[in-house]
Amino acid sequence: MDSLDSLDSLDSLGSKDTLRYEGRVAVVTGAGRGLGREYALLLAARGARVVVNDVGTGIDGRGASGSPAHAVAEEVRASGGHAIADVQDIATTAGARALTSAALEQWGRLDVLVNNAGISILRPLGELSDQDCSRVLDTHVGGTLNMLRAVWPHMAGSGYGRIVNTCSDALFGDTGLSVYAAGKGAVLGLTTSLAAEGAGLGIKVNAVVPIAATRMSLEALQGDEQMTAVLSDLFPARHAAAVVAFLAHESVPCTGELLHAAGRRVGRVFLGVTEGVVSEEDPTPESVSEHFPRIRRTEDFRTPHSVGASMAFSLARLGVGGAEPLALDLTTPAARQ
Ligand SMILES: NC(=O)c1ccc[n+]([C@@H]2O[C@H](COP(=O)([O-])OP(=O)(O)OC[C@H]3O[C@@H](n4cnc5c(N)ncnc54)[C@H](O)[C@@H]3O)[C@@H](O)[C@H]2O)c1
User: Fold this and answer.
1) What is the pLDDT of residues 189-204, one digit of tens each?
2) Which InterPro entries match (predicted)?
């Protein structure tokens, strides 16, 4: 085993407690329960001033209560940290703006955004109502986008920002997940695209892909006692908090990337393209069919970090140009005026 992979060496690296957040202000959405609560507690314990946002909904987005956000903010303060509660609904643009203003009014800055708030309605496609679809998309896509749009000008203005979005294993697909997975797919696109936009602004945008025992995941198991025990024992939400704190730190070395936070296992989730097959002749449906096994071979693959890098890879495989990423500006001209 490679020495860096050994648990001993990882433990000794982790025990130094060197990643600190003094001077930083963090907003964590959906921090009144589950994963968000653990993120808020860890960031605050390591010196960040934290806005604990939570509208206090049910798992399916129905209802509202101020109690979860206030309880977690109080928990932080009781242990000597700095936190305020915020009960805005981030699925609305007004709520996201008000939350951002609350952080700025309280502490005059905003350095970290953890886009964590989420709901879950897991049903087969044919059983989803219009309202189910809107509620899920408004929270995951709308909520994440609303918060990004609200904080972006402030982070760009200060030349610093660390953003952690939330994706899901639902991206890999399974039954009952369609609209929830669509929401998380949108968050993936926001993460990779805004990493590019943030590169010149001092803003890094990554995402966590958590697996943790929370009310949301436990309900999804529908009383499966064995899986409930496994999830509860091996995937406490505090483990994912370590990954989020790393991604929220000034020193984070990556942007546009997804980290899998699965209990004590941390990995990377990525989009890859296979080497593929280059034919001498123009492709036909028959040639695609003939080469299909080689086309989808994942033994050799690339992980382009931009459209320009993906384009350069295809060009190189077609025998045109080197593999250097192309510097593309795909902004529509009207937006530049
Ligand atoms: N638990 C898992 O295994 C898992 C797996 C993959 C992804 N996720 C994602 O992680 C995030 C946290 O989930 P969790 O498991 O801790 O769930 P949870 O239900 O315990 O907590 C989610 C919190 O978000 C809040 N919230 C929902 N909509 C909101 C809104 N519009 N404005 C403000 N707050 C809102 C809720 O009130 C709730 O307290 C979600 O985005 C979820 O999709 C969780």
Assistant:
1) 999 999 999 999 999 9
2) NAD(P)-bd_dom_sf (IPR036291), Peroxisomal_Beta-Oxidation (IPR051687), SDR_fam (IPR002347)
Number of Cβ atoms within 10 Å of the Cβ of 252: 17
pLDDT for 131: 97
pLDDT tens by residue, 203-262: 999 999 999 999 999 999 999 999 999 999 999 999 999 999 999 999 999 999 999 999
19-269: CATH topology is: Rossmann fold (3.40.50)
Q: In the structure, which protein residues have their CB atom closer than 6 angstroms to any atom of ligand 1?
A: 29-30, 32-36, 53-57, 59, 61, 68, 89-91, 116-119, 139, 143, 166, 168, 210-212, 214-217
Q: How many CB atoms lie within 10 A of CB 58?
A: 11
* Residue of 35, 97, 122 best suited for mutating to test ligand 1, as the one with most atoms within 8 Å of CB: 35
What gap in Å lies between CA 90 and CA 51, rounded to an integer?
13
Return the ligand 1 atom nearest residue 166 CA.
41
Q: Which residue has the tokens 């990954």?
A: 243
